[in-house]
Design goal:
about 150 residues, alpha+beta, Aminopeptidase, 4 helices, MshD_Acetyltransferase, transferase, acyltransferase activity, transferring groups other than amino-acyl groups
């Protein structure tokens, strides 16, 4: 039997209302230490021209259910997934997996190296399992206390 995941759309965050909607999204209390806040991520994106923050929207309702940010690292010409978060009210419904799949497809069409790299907190077992199930492999590297995982596209 094939598992179906909700359809998601990745959309630019281009208005103050969308920024406020994004900043209102929250992870579960036990996940707070695993990821920077969306407000911090939007500030980082405003300062780094190579970062692209995107809203994760449910296609059926248009509701913002999560946030992600990727970047083309100018140092190594590699694609990085800097953030992926799904609001606590929408976790466990497949939105994270769906967003990751849409992002990987999107990044394949952009310039940059053939890999997608990310860092994940070692204690964030749920995220590590999600990334591994989508083909990301732990490289053995640790960057700023995070395990580095890479997907060959």
């Amino acid at each position: 039997m094939r598992t179906l995941y909700p359809a998601v759309l990745l959309a630019p965050i281009s208005t103050r209302d969308e920024e406020a909607e994004c900043c209102a999204l929250q992870v579960r209390d036990e996940q707070i230490d695993f990821i920077a806040s969306n407000a911090e991520s939007l500030e980082e994106a405003a300062e780094c021209p190579w970062c692209e923050p995107l809203a994760v929207r449910a296609v059926h309702s248009g509701e913002m259910v999560g946030f992600l940010m990727h970047a083309l690292d100018p140092d190594d010409n590699g694609r990085w997934l800097y953030r992926l978060m799904i609001d606590r009210h929408h976790q466990g419904l497949g939105y994270g997996r769906a967003a990751l799949r849409v992002l990987v497809a999107y990044l394949r069409d952009l310039s940059g190296g053939p890999d997608i790299t990310l860092g994940v907190a070692p204690e964030n077992i749920g995220a590590r399992n999600l990334y591994a199930s989508e083909g990301f492999l732990e490289t053995g590297e640790v960057l700023d206390g995070e395990l580095v995982m890479r997907l060959r596209t």
